[in-house]
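Researcher: Next entry: ABC transporter (Polaribacter glomeratus).
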Amino acid sequence: MNTNKVIQVKELTKVFGDFTAVNAITFDVEKGEIFGFLGANGAGKTTAMKMLIGISNPTSGKATVAGFDVFTNAEDIKKNIGYMSQKFALYDDLTVKENITFFGGIYGLSRKRIKEKAAILIKELGLENVANKLVGSLPLGWKQKLSFSVSLIHDPKIVFLDEPTGGVDPITRRQFWELIYKASHQGITVFVTTHYMDEAEYCDRVSIMVNGKIEALDTPKKLKEQFKVDTMNDVFLKLARG
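Model: Predicted structure:
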């Protein structure tokens, strides 16, 4: 496998009994790339992501994430990635500062580094006035941006985002994508799932899963040209309809 790629996947498969959830998918992701991983509910994208972040063992195939093998080095993968789930990992009954301190400790940062990072994050996100308020009292958009920033607190090589902008207004979604672009410009690879097809347009490349297989993979521009349509939503609909 090419060591210049931060994610390399070849024929990766996950089988549950008689059901093949992920069927021999192959792709790679470059450093600093924003890679969109799309598919309808049940298409297999969540199962695939779980294998890549080291919390589900593949049935067969090969894959490396941040240079570590998904079969034999799952714990090393977890140390070198950030992860933000759709439901957010923040604790509502802790303050903004306490959440940052807690997760900084989980990721193994020193007290000095956590203090430095907390000051930077709070200033960058404009949370100075609410730093000592419970996270549960914050608007959803602020929680999202804080959760994303906390997932990067240990300077990971890759961050996995699972439906990160679900349930928020368009303005907050745009602000969130500004954070994604900033991370990408800093060399962090962003692997993102989304069901908002307009967000697929923001990605450098996009893969679309249908029934456990990757049925399309390219830049948004080239996919629209390939399927002779105007939007990524039209690409998705064509694939979904077969």
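Model: Note for the record: Strands lie at 5-16, 19-30, 34-39, 60-65, 68-69, 81-84, 158-162, 189-193, 205-210, 213-218.
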